[in-house]
Predict the 3D structure of the following.
Amino acid sequence: MTSIARRLRIGVVAILVLVVLVAVGVLVWANIVMQGDRDRALEVWTNDAVEVTSTDHSVVIGPTGVASGTGLVFIPGAKVDTYGYMYKLSEIVERTGATIVITKPILNLAFFDQRPLDTFTADARGVDRWFVGGHSLGGVRACMLADDPDVSGLILFGSYCANDLTESGLEVLSIAGSRDGLSTPDKIADARGLLPADARLVEIEGLNHAGFGDYGAQPGDNTATITTETARDEITDALATVLSR
């Protein structure tokens, strides 16, 4: 083997090793998630008013009583545990009979998850009116799925769209937290022009970014000045304006 061929072979091997190391690094990084609060999740699992089902694609929270026929596919924020949203979203199920499908994003990152909406809607039965929504970057992905013909509306938690939905005809609810240090109320207001003219914007006083779920503190966020129970009640009140119709 000539010296040139040997150097080329060494170069190719080095590149392959580097690619493998980068891929492993990304996989490790993506799988280090902000874990959901175990006690809050257990409170939902043991609640007789709701039924929780875990599938390969999602966690489904449905009513044990009469179902309303309305459902929400909810996409977690980047690297946030799916179970970290169970407590905040379960009260709307109790109150209205809606069905909530919390997705399990590929690599815990919504942008990497290119599966169609029906991957998740198929996990729930008896729903004939679907909303899609999400928290933070999960909300950005939800905006992209909102053009699905089966979608009636969009719900954003501490998030905003990157695509134009002004002519979509969707019913839109956007909830901001006054203490959100990441998706600040100003950022959400700046992106208001991408939503339909009749979109409803709600700001919850004292709520921070991580307060839309229950998974602990998040870097760059502010400290919440309301309890998780109060946040849950106010989020549910806002959701009821669209999911109870």
Summary: The chain has a mean pLDDT of 90.
